[in-house]
């Protein structure tokens, strides 16, 4: 089984996590979903780097889960393939980030894209994590580089639904913001397994680090 950054992992019990001084909010929230998000960090043999997300933006907790504890893996791309927003309740569909998905799915038809962030978490777990103010976090596995003008044109289409669509380009283990690339005049940040790096051309320079 291949586990990648942004994947969601369901486990059977909070006891499956490394218990490293979990804050109170984790103990209150996590048992409701029993779902963690794979972090962009080096894997330790037998252990997967994961994060627990709370209701508030600042509620993020990094930990590890044993590979033997995995009950189910849900990928951001799976959420798209299954049209996971179609059977949401009427009230949740009204959220800007949710209501944008039908239109965005048409624009990105043919792209290898997925949904992450609070929206992806809610679609996977049916816990109400998205808010009226939530951005729509998307990821895209690219097959070939695109120009800045093409990136700007794509982002303009994605952002015409009344919510900010943040599209992260995925290259192996690395990722960078398409918006930052489209608007950059110098360097941009590429996230890697070890630490972020600044590059002039993310399509070329990020290949110099482990992918």
From TrEMBL:
Keywords: Nucleotidyltransferase, Transferase. Residues 6-76 form the Phosphoribosyl-dephospho-CoA transferase MdcG N-terminal domain. Transmembrane segments: none annotated. Residues 94-202 form the Phosphoribosyl-dephospho-CoA transferase MdcG C-terminal domain. InterPro entries: Holo-ACP_synthase, MdcG_C, MdcG_N. GO terms for molecular function: nucleotidyltransferase activity. This is Phosphoribosyl-dephospho-CoA transferase. It comes from Companilactobacillus nuruki.
């Amino acid at each position: 089984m291949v586990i990648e950054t942004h994947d969601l992992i369901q486990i059977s019990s909070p006891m499956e996590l490394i218990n490293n001084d979990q804050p109170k909010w984790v103990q209150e929230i996590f048992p409701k979903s029993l779902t963690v998000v794979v972090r962009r960090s080096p894997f330790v043999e037998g252990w997967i780097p994961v994060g627990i997300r709370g209701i508030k933006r600042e509620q993020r907790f990094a930990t590890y889960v044993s590979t033997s504890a995995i009950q189910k893996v849900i990928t951001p791309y799976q959420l798209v393939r299954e049209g996971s927003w179609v059977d949401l309740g009427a009230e949740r569909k009204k959220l800007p980030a949710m209501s944008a998905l039908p239109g965005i799915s048409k624009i990105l038809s043919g792209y290898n894209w997925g949904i992450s962030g609070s929206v992806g978490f809610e679609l996977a777990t049916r816990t109400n994590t998205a808010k009226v103010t939530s951005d729509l976090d998307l990821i895209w596995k690219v097959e070939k580089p695109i120009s800045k003008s093409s990136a700007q044109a794509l982002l303009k289409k994605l952002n015409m639904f009344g919510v900010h669509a943040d599209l992260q380009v995925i290259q192996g283990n690395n990722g960078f913001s398409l918006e930052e690339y489209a608007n950059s005049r110098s360097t941009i940040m590429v996230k890697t397994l070890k630490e972020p790096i600044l590059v002039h051309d993310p399509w070329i320079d990020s290949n110099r680090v482990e992918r």
